[in-house]
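User: I'm preparing a small set of examples for a lab meeting where we compare how different chains pack in three dimensions. I only have the primary sequence for this one, and I'd like the structure in token form so I can line it up with the others. Please keep the answer compact; I'll paste it straight into my notes.
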Amino acid sequence: MAVEHAIIAGAGIAGLSAALSFAKAGIPSDIYEKAPHLTEVGAGLQIAPNASHILSTLGVLADLESVWNEPERIDLLSGIRLKRLASVPVGPYARNRWGAPYGVLHRATLQKALLAAVLREPACRLHLDTMIDPVASAPAAGDGRPQLVVGADGVWSRMRAVVPSCPIPAFSGNIAWRFTIPGADAPSFLDLSAVSAFLGPDAHIVAYPLTEIGGFNVVAITAGNSPGETWDASAGDVRLDLLLRRFSGWHADIRKMLEAANEPRFWPLYQASDGHWHNGVDTVLIGDAAHAMMPFAAQGAAMAIEDAFELARFAGGAMPLPAALEAFEAKRKPRIDRARKQAAFNRFAYHASGPVRIARDVVLSMRSPQSLSDSFDWLYGYRAA
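Assistant: Understood. Below is the structure token output for the 385-residue chain.
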């Protein structure tokens, strides 16, 4: 029995993608967002082909392509010597190999494009400054067919309250520092044609150009303490001093870039444990609410977009809703687990020190761009259905 209507908690990337995916499947939805205005915290975002393919299907990609940047490659570099260790080609190569583009953009750009598509879609209704009571059950639609409730409300989801044995968020022990650099002030080692990942002992830095600001987005990830449930904390002099200590053995030019950072912000990195994503009746979790993961594979937003699209396919099918939710979770969990493992491996490799770091650099320098891209086929070539 196909779902008649969906209620979505949260109007972030996961929630808006879900609303558009439901509309594509012929299911109207109401999106409820507790904030009075939609604002996207953070700066940069990487959209890999597995996600951009879905955004194209949802009619959003064209709006993004007019403003985003498609880098030619993803470079892995030594944070100590500034030497390129390996590269993965993207740009036109990504379109040819994986059938969709790899782009970088401001998070707010994606949020605005999704919002504009939702507001254009008659099957979607957005309600700001409104919260859903997670304890209230989902009422049936007018003709008695079931109504689905989707928890797309992030890592600290309230909707988990009605999902027994649900995932539990926990601080990972890592924090992310974020700042932007105007193009005129950017150091010469930042490349306008690439996503640059600088690897070093116990930390790494990712930098890439943002067309929207005419400069670079920079994120530095290292160990640290959590300030609590926030995505946008002020650094302060003491925390900045701790950050610089983490990069004490890095190249002097990188340290100068960190020292010159204008009003950097930071946020704690939380991840969710394994657990059930649905209550077996009418409520399901997607995105960070279901499986918040570390950003070492740059797939958090992509996995949320995949969740939204595939959930709509199951909800719009012939199965009873409880069976559809079970099938959705069974389909998605193996992929999420593999993405988690990839992120965990990347963290080990990116933050390696001592002899392990030396061995990593040697191994990476021996890998051709072609062989490296082979290892991304399962991730970037995936087609949600």
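A couple of notes for your slides: Residues 137-142 have pLDDT under 50 and may be disordered. The two ends are 19 Å apart (CA to CA).

User: Perfect, thanks.
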